[in-house]
Design goal:
The chain is an alpha+beta fold and 94 residues long. The protein has one domain. It is built from four helices and two strands, in the order E-H-H-E-H-H. Strands 1-2 form a two-stranded parallel ribbon.
Length: 94
């Protein structure tokens, strides 16, 4: 499958699970969070790689330590990446 136009994909990877989990005083909770986070990060990386391989027009961005709602937690990063992507489209116009 290919998308015949430029496409921007933004991933939060690795995810921030928030201080309640990441800074939990219970060592077993922190260990479980790390294990989950490692698996989730690998899964998300596979998704990004699959998009890069399948969609030749894809521009794939990973924003570190963002939460699931990356456009909220990292609004400035998302806006910067969108503006940069749109600038490449403008420069390609005839």
């Amino acid at each position: 499958m290919d998308i015949p136009v430029p496409a921007l994909f933004i991933f939060a990877n690795p995810h921030s699970l928030g201080p309640w989990l990441e800074d939990n005083k219970d060592a077993s909770v922190r260990e479980a969070v790390r294990a989950y986070s490692d698996k989730f990060e690998a899964y998300t990386q596979k998704q990004a790689e699959a998009i890069r391989e399948a969609v030749h027009t894809a521009h794939v961005i990973a924003i570190r330590n963002a939460n699931h709602f990356v456009f909220v937690s990292n609004e400035g990063d998302v806006l910067r990446e969108m503006q940069a992507f749109l600038a490449t489209l403008r420069s390609q116009r005839p």
